[in-house]
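Reminder to self: tokens first, then the designed residues, so the page reads top to bottom the way the pipeline ran.
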């Protein structure tokens, strides 16, 4: 069973539909017992970083997720804002995240504002920085769907799974131990995203 964490800010329905399509049991939940009994976690997210932190704490999920991820070592996949929450700090609200990665979240700063619109919306490719089973069956120049105005900067290059170019390169995938995050939306990325989520399920 995969628990899709419900803190009121995420593409919960589209993530659930993708897992249903794959044939993987999942539940959208904020119930601590259901989260503890799950085998894997998905932390989706769309919206404001500071608001997300507040909602997670109000719902009693902040300490629970820290325990499940850091102590129980449960595999977790962060999507978009869900990935950004895994960092130590975000300029979007000037608040601290979980701190699972030594990284920070910053707003895009592009010089060519006619060519590179903010938010970054639409299809873009990834450049794989280090091989991983999550990329099994994916083509090197596979496209994924992005919607974001902020991106992360990792202090430890070994945490970076892949980069994406949007005037300049930014980390679009990160991983450390049982923790994985992607800036793009695999649940909206058709066959490539489905293959990636299948690979996460196999972990």
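Designed residues (203 positions):
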């Amino acid at each position: 069973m995969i628990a899709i964490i419900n803190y009121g800010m995420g593409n919960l329905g589209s993530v659930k539909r993708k897992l249903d399509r794959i044939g993987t049991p999942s539940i959208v939940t904020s119930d601590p017992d259901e989260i503890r009994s799950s085998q894997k976690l998905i932390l989706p997210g769309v919206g404001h970083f500071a608001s997300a932190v507040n909602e997670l704490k109000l719902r009693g999920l902040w300490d629970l997720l820290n325990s499940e991820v850091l102590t129980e070592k449960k595999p977790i996949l962060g999507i978009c804002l869900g990935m950004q929450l895994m960092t130590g700090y975000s300029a979007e609200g000037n608040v601290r995240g979980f701190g699972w990665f030594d990284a920070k979240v910053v707003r895009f700063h592009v010089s060519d504002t006619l060519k590179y619109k903010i938010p970054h919306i639409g299809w873009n490719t990834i450049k794989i920085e280090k091989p991983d089973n999550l990329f099994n069956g994916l083509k090197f120049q596979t496209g994924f769907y992005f919607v974001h105005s902020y991106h992360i900067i990792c202090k430890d290059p070994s945490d970076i799974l892949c980069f994406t170019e949007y005037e300049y390169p930014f980390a679009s995938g990160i991983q450390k131990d049982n923790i994985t995050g992607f800036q793009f939306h695999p649940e909206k990325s058709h066959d490539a995203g489905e293959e990636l989520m299948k690979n996460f399920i196999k972990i």
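The first strand starts at residue 2 and ends at 5.
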